[in-house]
């Protein structure tokens, strides 16, 4: 009975108050060498397979990758031009913007075998600046986010985990929604969209940036089916993840870009131009005492010269 009460108390402290998080972090650091050793056979097999690949196959891959690299270079030039145009427009509006995000490459160590929890362990931790909530990508799209870190490794929850949701928008029309995981081997679910929502099969979903966790514009998935069941308030929309959640070994940790604040580049108003034109001819006629006043302070000049005029009129009255 005492053991049962003690286990319930420990479960409550860990689930509600996150009391044993430092203990889990220390244990993860201790277990890291075992995880790295367990992954050595797979890494060795991959290395041997790459070493003994056929020469013709490698040559074909080089040709394909060269063509893809040229195409991506052309697209990158266009993206850079669009980014510079975006920066100029934001400068005109006086808005702030973020530079392009940076990424850090990591590798999977182990995969959680629990069918009700879609999580993996990567080989980067606090020593590489990994933090809780950091977005994780692969070469095709969003994979998930970091939920727990230790000194040498981190735990990542995938998009297919039932406890994970991500705000998205349809790339075609900008319609915002939320996508939730449904477990291993299942498509993602787009929630809370009515029957009259403009959603079509094949629509690309990208991150909307709401919530400030995931940057804007990263691919999340593609709509594979849209159903409108009778008697239900929301549509039944299935989404296929863009990332290769079951095969990717290398992942990228997104580092946010530096936020840049700009000032609006506004043209001077007509009133300011007239005031400046009026103030310019009076500068040579100013006395030595008045030269201490800046030309831009036109109201201050009026305040200084007015008492002198009143003093001269008073002197004339005394003479009369």
Report on the architecture of this protein.
The protein has a domain at 98-257: Beta Barrel (Thrombin, subunit H). A hairpin with a 4-residue loop joins strand 5 (142-149) and strand 6. The protein is globular, with a radius of gyration of 32 Å. It has 6 helices and 14 strands. With 320 residues, the chain is α+β, with helices and mostly antiparallel strands. The protein has helices at 2-16, 21-38, 40-51, 55-93, 270-282, 298-319; strands at 97-98, 102-111, 119-122, 135-137, 142-149, 154-158, 165-170, 176-180, 188-191, 204-207, 219-227, 236-241, 250-255, 259-260.
What is the topological layout?
Elements: H1 2-16, H2 21-38, H3 40-51, H4 55-93, E1 97-98, E2 102-111, E3 119-122, E4 135-137, E5 142-149, E6 154-158, E7 165-170, E8 176-180, E9 188-191, E10 204-207, E11 219-227, E12 236-241, E13 250-255, E14 259-260, H5 270-282, H6 298-319
Antiparallel strand pairs: 1-14, 2-3, 2-13, 3-6, 4-5, 4-13, 5-6, 7-8, 7-10, 8-9, 9-12, 10-11, 11-12
Brief digest:
The protein is an alpha+beta fold.
CATH architecture of the domain at 98-257: Beta Barrel
Helix content: 25-40%
- The number of distinct β-strands equals 14
The strand order across the widest sheet is: 2-3-6-5-4-13
């Amino acid at each position: 009975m005492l053991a049962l009460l003690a286990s319930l108390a420990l479960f409550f402290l860990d689930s509600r108050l996150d009391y044993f998080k430092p203990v889990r972090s220390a244990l993860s650091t201790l277990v890291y060498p075992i995880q790295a050793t367990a992954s050595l056979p797979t890494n060795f097999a991959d290395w041997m397979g790459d070493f003994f690949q056929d020469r013709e196959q490698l040559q074909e891959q080089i040709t394909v990758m060269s063509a893809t690299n040229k195409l991506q270079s052309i697209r990158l030039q266009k993206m850079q031009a669009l980014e510079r145009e975006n920066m100029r427009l934001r400068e005109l509006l006086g808005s702030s913007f973020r530079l392009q995000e940076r990424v850090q490459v990591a590798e999977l160590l182990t995969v959680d075998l629990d069918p009700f929890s879609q999580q993996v362990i990567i080989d980067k931790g606090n020593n590489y600046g990994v933090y809780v909530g950091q977005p994780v990508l692969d070469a095709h799209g969003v994979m998930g986010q970091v939920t727990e870190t230790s000194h040498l490794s981190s735990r990542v929850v995938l998009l297919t985990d039932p406890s994970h949701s991500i705000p998205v928008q349809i790339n075609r029309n900008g319609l915002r929604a939320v996508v939730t995981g449904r477990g291993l081997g299942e498509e993602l679910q787009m929630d809370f969209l009515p029957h009259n929502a403009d959603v079509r099969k094949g629509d690309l979903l990208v991150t909307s940036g709401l919530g400030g966790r995931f940057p804007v514009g990263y691919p999340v998935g593609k709509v594979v089916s849209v159903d409108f069941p009778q008697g239900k308030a929301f549509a039944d929309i299935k989404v296929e993840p863009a990332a290769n959640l079951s095969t990717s070994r290398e992942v990228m940790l997104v580092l946010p870009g530096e936020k840049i604040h700009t000032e609006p580049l506004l043209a001077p108003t007509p009133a300011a131009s007239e005031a400046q034109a009026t103030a310019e001819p009076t500068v040579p006629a100013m006395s030595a005492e008045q030269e201490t006043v800046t030309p831009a302070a036109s109201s201050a000049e009026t305040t200084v010269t007015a008492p002198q005029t009143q003093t001269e009129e008073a002197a004339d009255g005394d003479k009369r």
